[in-house]
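Chapter review: from sequence to fold.
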Amino acid sequence: MARYTGPVCKLCRREGEKLFLKGERCFTPKCAFEKRSYPPGEHGRFSGRASRQSDYSRQLRAKQKGKRIYGVLERQFRRYFKEARRRPGLTGLNLLQILESRLDNVVYRLGFAESRSQARQLVNHGHFKVNDRRNDIASTILKPGDRVAVRDISKQNEYFKMLRQAGESRTPPAWVESDLDALTGRVIRLPDRAEIDGNLNEQLIVEYYSR
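The token string follows.
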């Protein structure tokens, strides 16, 4: 399964803003973006990125930001866009709803992981069930009514024992329902636009793929 394995803090620096790819660490002074907010590379400090952006550059950056936030590579991201375009309604919102409906993202939204990358690892290691069946495919698209639960054997893992104690500080969005005591959750409905990260510009992504 293809995935990005390089340093994730460079991705935030390239986009010029925090993408919160390391969970709680991004809220501490240890975050690399706090020390070096300029783009990576030999000439990053002097790139002058904000002063000369073409329409294409803004569209590309919006698309790259979306891929990096959700941990999706180009081929899969393009496939999601084609699916979004086939669905009725706004293509940009459809795309974001598809990305939010991925199993790894739902696990993250339910509060079972500090970041999407950690959620993806937990899913890949087979710790979760979807509708009472073991599922280790992070890209599974969930539908309203689907149930997610930590497997009984995994509840003995030290990570999930600690999660029950720390879970009260994690408030899930209104479109999912989470029970951290039982380590279960459910997708109630698709998220509204206001419930999805506001720093994503889906219209620029649509423009990029519609060129």
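Two observations follow directly from the output. The chain has a mean pLDDT of 84. The longest strand covers residues 147-150.
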